[in-house]
Amino acid sequence: MTADILLDKHRVKRSFAAAAAGYDRLASLQRQVGLDLLRRFPLSGGEEVIVDLGCGTGFLTHQLAADFSGQQLLALDIALPMLITSRLNYPAMRAGYLCGDAEKLPFADSSLDGIYSNLALQWAQDLSAALLDFKRVVKRRGRLVFSTFGPQTLAELKAAWLAVDDYTHVNEFHTKDQIELFLQTAGFKGINVASVLYRSEYPDVESLMRELKGIGAHNVNRRRNPRPTTKTQLQQMINHYPRQGAGIVASYEIIFVQAEMAT
């Protein structure tokens, strides 16, 4: 078992930087998951310093800000255009912005009461190492709360591409059990991990592909086809994608996580 899923981090950064301007128009699933995450694991009310990792255009940060009464709310993202868009979206929000990598946190030991993250940590190159660093920066009795994609995400798209060639066309994600093991190995306690399957409807495969491109969710796996996809290959994939009635359905496995620091 490995925590490394062979992501091209530079490509991740470029993809989300390019997607910042139009992200909110397409990110309905991300907003829904963010709301569900905070319903499952709301702020406890005792946090003084918290950070939203991979804040994107600021939706989750803004939800946190509405209930946050502590000293400092921070928002961190690897793509500067995302942070700029967040500032434009929520000019009155009390939050400090940091452009940085969630796998290289610029925080002192035991300096945070909580880390929150919504559908961002699936882009970590080494999740187990990242979780170990999260434990370093979270105070005793602090919490780690996040959502991430699981391996059943875009299962229909993955199966359709498998009928065309053997390359990795859909990003790979860790299982619920792997994430729980990584948390245990990092030293977290009180671990709560749940998997939920969401389904989104689209009129056609092209609409799904446009949405994925528009939110920056490109295929950034190093096992992707090094050559551009041809029109013939794309049409073959579309022909193999299962239809439901007049449209198609795409599945998204969402893994919700809460973990605590040992007291």
TrEMBL record:
Which SUPFAM superfamilies does the record match to this protein? S-adenosyl-L-methionine-dependent methyltransferases
A single GO BP: biotin biosynthetic process
Q: In which pathway does it act?
A: Cofactor biosynthesis; biotin biosynthesis
The broad enzyme category this protein falls into is: transferase
Q: Name one GO molecular function term.
A: malonyl-CoA methyltransferase activity
Question: What Pfam families does the database record attribute to this sequence?
Answer: Methyltransf_11
Keyword check for Methyltransferase, yes or no.
yes
- What range(s) does the Methyltransferase type domain occupy? 51-146
Q: What are the EC numbers?
A: 2.1.1.197
Q: What does this protein do?
A: Converts the free carboxyl group of a malonyl-thioester to its methyl ester by transfer of a methyl group from S-adenosyl-L-methionine (SAM). It allows to synthesize pimeloyl-ACP via the fatty acid synthetic pathway.
What's the family? Belongs to the methyltransferase superfamily.
Protein name according to UniProt? Malonyl-[acyl-carrier protein] O-methyltransferase
